[in-house]
Amino acid sequence: MTPVDLSTFYTRAKTCERLGFSLRTLDRMVVAGSAPAHAKRKRAAKKPELVFDPADVEAMAAAAEKPPVIMPKASLEERAIEVRNAREPGTAMTLLRELMQRPAPAPPRDTLWVTVAEASAESGLSETLLHRLIAKELLPAIKDRGWKVRRADLANIDSGLVSLLSCGTMICGSVS
Q1: Which residues contact 49 (CB under 8 A, 6 or more apart)?
Q2: Which residues share a beta bridge with 41?
Q3: Which structural domain range is residue 23 located in?
Q4: Cβ contact 10:38 at 8 Å
Q5: Considering only CA atoms, which of 41, 35, 39 is closest in space to residue 18?
Q6: Which of 83, 107, 113, 149 is deepest in the core (most CB within 10 A)?
Q7: Are 116 and 130 in contact (CB under 8 A)?
Q8: Is 30 inside a domain boundary?
C-alpha cells in the first residue's frame, strides 16, 4: 500500500470555499458519510487536521455546478405580448365586469345570542360593565366558549340601572 501525500489535500476551509458550503454543513456531511474522501493529517503539537482529497472535491464541485438556464426567444416574446395585453384597458374592464356579476356576500344574520364583545359594540357599554352585570345576575347570560347574552335582554337593560352601575354606587355595594 502506497502512502498518500496528505500535504496536497484540501483543508476544511478550502473545501468549503470550493463547494460553497459552510463548515457546519461539511461537518454534517462527514458524519453522514456523504463528504468527499477525507483523512486526518498529523500536525506537530496539535490535534490531527481533517483534510479532503482534491480530486473528490473537484468532482463534487463539477457535479454541483449547473449550466445557466437560457430561455428561448419565442417564449420571451410570448411573455411580452401577455404583459402588453394585461395593460390594455379592455382586460381590466372585463375583470371588473366579472367581479360585479358575482353575487354579493350574504349579510350577517341577526343571531339570538351575542358575545360580550359584540354586545359591548352594539350597546355602547364597556365589556367590564357587562361582565359586572352578568356576575350580579342582572343581565342573563350563558357560558358557551365565553359569555353570551341574548340580544333581547341587551335591548331591555334599564337605563336607570346602567346609570347606577356606571357611577359606582352599586358596584361598591351600597345599593343592593
Answers
A1: 11, 12, 40, 41, 43
A2: 49
A3: 7-64
A4: no
A5: 35
A6: 149
A7: yes
A8: yes
